# Entry
Amino acid sequence: MNLKNLHTEHKAVQTHLLFQPTDAKVIALQIAKNEQLKEHITKLPALLVCVSGKAIYNDEKGTSVTLQSGDYYNIPENVKHWVDAQEESNFLLIK
# Structure
């Protein structure tokens, strides 16, 4: 999913609730080109927003999502997952 696809009306200002945080954390994350955020499990649902770069999110359920600038993915709780950066990539992780 991409942020620009959320707003379909022709209005000057639009909002769209993406995620309802439970732990109220926003984390800046950077992964170097050809590096990996090792597999792990989050105990809370999280929203991963790609700010720049290109990376692939994978999880134990077989989900594989390519993330580029503006793309986001809702990470479910208690699912083992990892992220492989195709190029230097920056993210916001919201829990």
Summary: The chain has a mean pLDDT of 93. The first strand starts at residue 26 and ends at 31. The chain is about 0% helix and 45% strand.
